[in-house]
Amino acid sequence: MTKYELTPPSRRIGQYVESGDWSDYWRTAISAAGDGRILVRGYPVEEIIERLTSTEAHWLLLQGELPTGRQAAIFDACLRSGMDQQFISSAASATRFAASASRSPVSALAAGMLATGVVTGSPRPTMEMLYASAERGEREGLSRERAAAAVVAEYRARRELVPGFGHPLHRDGIEPRAVALRRVVERHEGWGAHGLLLDALRDALQETLGRTVTVNLAGMLAAVYCDLDFDPLVAEGVSALEYGWALVAHAVEEIRDGVPLRIIPDALGAAYTGSPERHIPEPGISHESHRK
């Protein structure tokens, strides 16, 4: 079990109902506020506003401690790596559809966020795979290459795609965002054990498939976030927020320059695959005989 694997909750509603003691029912280690004072992870919010960059402040908020210079530089690159990909992401399309109907960037952003998940670029599945594979290799005394080969074999046996690899548009090993992010990370000497494990997984998958495999952005982010010791849940949320900037841009552009109430006509790929035209039977004719 990896340290970030979800476990059964340590607190349950029943214990509070039975004891009648609700003193720690709502608790947080993130911030404290009261009497004209706000502390975030123990630091006065005034100092955060005056002395930290946005990247440093958000690292503190999520990780609980101030980042080193190297950590801040790599995290900053992660936060700007997603940017936008025209209409390739389903989140952008969902945002556009919602904006065309609601005319509100807020509801459109929410719709886009709801369309963000494992299929649309979350690093979480790859992070969970990397953490588990690294721990297994250490526990069983496997080399990085053997651990990677075992993971690929298991995914293939289950007929599942290995997360972090492949892209519908970017092929031949070139995903421009992932390539650029890795360059930045390597420049700051941040390509660590999990990054090397990702390389081994790519090599094992390429050998199995007999072709070049592309590391997608989610896979690259996963390795980087693992080497930064991020919780996969945090990384998934951060990735959605980071792409949220692009969704705001899409929402505003749709409202200002789009087509109100977007539709999908036949000319753009809508296709009916149901029954041909038919009619409800006249009164007195049973539905069963009509079906015959």
How would you describe this protein?
This protein is mostly helical and 292 residues long. The chain contains 13 helices and three strands. It has helices at 13-19, 45-51, 54-63, 69-79, 90-102, 105-114, 124-140, 144-157, 176-187, 193-209, 217-227, 232-257, 287-291; strands spanning 31-34, 37-40, 43-44. A three-stranded antiparallel sheet has the order 1-2-3. A hairpin with a 2-residue loop joins β2 (37-40) and β3. α6 (105-114) packs across α12 (232-257). The chain is globular and about 75 Å long. 30% of the residues are buried. The model has no long low-confidence stretch (mean pLDDT 93).
What is the terminal-to-terminal distance? 57 Å
Radius of gyration: 24 Å
Q: Report the order of strands and helices.
A: HEEEHHHHHHHHHHHH
Biggest sheet record: 3 strands, antiparallel
Strand content: under 5%
| Fraction of residues in helix | 40-55%
> How many extended strands?
3
> Which structural class should the secondary elements be placed in?
mainly alpha
Shape: globular
Which ranges are low-confidence, i.e. pLDDT below 50, for 5 or more consecutive residues?
A: none
Let me know the average pLDDT: 93
Strand order of the largest sheet: 1-2-3
Number of helices: 13
